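Task card 7
Instruction: Convert sequence to structure tokens.
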Amino acid sequence: MARRWEHTPEELKNIAIQAGYDIMQERGFQAFSARAVAAKMGYTVGTLYHLFGDLDTFILHVNARTLDEWYEQEAAGIPKRPEQRARYFAQSYLKYARENYNRWNALFEHRLPAGEKIPDWYMPRMMRMFELIGDAMLPHAGGDAKKAERLAKVLWASVHGICTLSLAGKLDQVGAGTPERMIDDLIALAVGGKK
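Output:
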């Protein structure tokens, strides 16, 4: 078992978050536990609670790592041509969900206890993805930033629904076609009938 004084508190936090990140990817949210993370770190469960206070806060830190990674991937691949960006974000959303299902799912499965608010440090990580999509929708919203933001959230919710149904095998049951085709059709509608 590792000893706490071998690492600074910040190093320990990073070790814990990385262990949680790896376990979330391997096992998924339903099988995620403080005990498994502590064992992977080589520390006690008490160390984990000492560092983060409670399991919900720790899960937010793990999910923040997922959001950071996802954002970096999205931002790195933005097409130069503005008219290609909405489709890029929608299709890459599906790709990320498929390739990182357990971590993607944990973003939506984890819920804070009733009455607890999302911490201030976490909100920007969530919102910056909407900002990317909002920027992509700006040309299709006549340059109106508020309309682009609203369109971005509608687009996100629609693509998320397609991803969720597809990954659960429900699109096949109703003969809706491939999720890629559905997303292309959705984008065509969202940008005014242009593919």
